[in-house]
Amino acid sequence: MDRTAAGWVNGFLGVLIFSGSLPATRVAVADFAPVFLTASRAAIAGAIALLLLAALGERRPERGDLMSLAIVSLGVVVGFPLLTAIALQHITSAHSIVFIGLLPLATAIFGVVRGGERPRPAFWAFSLLGSALVVGFAVSQGITAAPAGDLLMVAAIVVCGLGYAEGAKLSRRLGGWQVISWALVLSLPVMLVIAFATRPDTLAGVGGPAWLGLAYVSLFSMLIGFVFWYRGLAQGGIAAVGQLQLLQPFFGLALAGLLLHEEVNPAMIGVTVAIVFCVAGARKFAR
């Protein structure tokens, strides 16, 4: 398998894992406060990452890598999880998942700014069309009914796109799992303090689904998914492989409907199908 094909395979596996993140977060915030959930998931993943780095004897990043790792931490370790956790107190996971359609555009833009990539003009046309479909869906579903949730999701997409592009650029030198591991370790001291300070007074009322949600976002969303995702972006190109995120609503909507019994209406499915056609066009002109 050549490097580009391997990038698409790894990217697809990353997207598949990330698809469960918003439904799992929706379940977890039913019993955990958003700030505690964000800090605890990062602390759990950070502790595991620290053990892995120590056990495998990985060399420490160079001083010049620290700023990039800080951007990754702020984007995908803190920013996206916290903003989405708060947003999901206002909107359903099915509604929030459609905003993931904006991620490819955000990732591609930061791929140009931070990664030096230069997709062709037709690529941007397809990416903008996909993003417009997502925004149009949010408005048609009554964005004024929960403006806070929608705005928080948009902010989450921006910081996540930056974290994806920055991590992919760094993965070309350090490796995919090493980048997310060092980013988690960098944020570990702060996340431990925040998790301890915001811990629930009692865990008696926390149900099994919330614990499972916390476990999923800690192990898969925060660590394992990024092993495949950053490797895929580094191998196949940030802008190109980043378009795979447009498949994420398919998987996420299915999970929200099957596991959470949330309504998945025809409009959601229609938008998702349309943006998948957009990703096919964008992929053709990514380079």
TrEMBL record:
Record's signal peptide: none
Gene Ontology cellular component list: membrane
Keyword Protease: no
Transmembrane region(s): 7-29, 35-56, 68-88, 94-113, 122-139, 145-165, 177-198, 210-230, 237-261, 267-286
Domain EamA: 10-130, 149-278
Membrane topology, from the record: Multi-pass membrane protein
A Pfam family matched in the record: EamA
SUPFAM superfamilies given in the database record: Multidrug resistance efflux transporter EmrE
Location of this chain's protein in the cell: Membrane
Keywords (A to Z) from UniProt: Membrane, Transmembrane, Transmembrane helix
Origin superkingdom: Bacteria
Entry annotated with the keyword Cytoplasm: no
Listed InterPro entries: AA-Vitamin_Transporters (IPR050638), EamA_dom (IPR000620), EmrE-like (IPR037185)
Similarity comment text for this entry: Belongs to the EamA transporter family.
Name by which UniProt lists this protein: Transporter
